[in-house]
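User: I'm putting together notes for a lab meeting next week and I want to include a structural view of one of the chains we've been expressing. I don't have a solved structure, so I'd like a prediction I can at least talk through. The sequence is below, exactly as it appears in our construct file.
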Amino acid sequence: MITLYDCATAPSPRRARILLAEKGAPHETVQVDLRSGEQLGEAFRRINPQCTVPALVTEEGPVLTDNAAIAAYIEARFPEPPLLGRSPLDKAEIAGWQWRVEFEGLLAIAEAFRNSSPAMVGRALAGPLDYAQIPALAERGLARVQAFFAMLNAHLAERDFIAAGQFSIADITAVVAVDFARVVKMKPGDEHPHLRRWRAAMETRGTMA
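Assistant: Thanks for the context. Below is the predicted structure for the 209-residue chain, given as structure tokens.
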């Protein structure tokens, strides 16, 4: 049985959780309490020395510790419905948009949040090492999030999905990014009608918890 090490309040494991739900992949879930620092404890370090979630224990035994590896594994194990694309061009388009949403969206929000939140003092980057906050990076992150919302709104003007005319891993990552932005007090507004329409449509899938 596949086992997902999850945290119900964190964005990164939510991506894996939605992926598994969309695939209908049977699995067990173990919650990791990030607020108490459980991910830094010796027990979890034995599972994932990177001290991050998600971590997916495969049926074959190896542990996958990032969303890219988890998506590749789950897509191969459960090919229907395809979330990374069918044709070579669709696969390329989805991969490109997945990259943009992750780096221009999720990482921008994380940059703003982890460099400004009092709860993240000394923990500006996830993982086993401590890093000091840099306030200027928080300011830059907020500007990047604004640009991300504007870009995604324009992109969705005549589209129902982020890439390749289908629901894909890029939509999953974008949902998580848009929702995660609330931690830096940002959300799509009246100036983002297409982004808001798309987000409302994603909610009807019933897998976005």
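A couple of points you could mention at the meeting. Residues 6 and 17 are 8 Å apart (CA to CA). Residues 88-203 form a domain with the Glutathione S-transferase Yfyf (Class Pi); Chain A, domain 2 fold (CATH 1.20.1050.10).

User: Perfect, that's what I needed.
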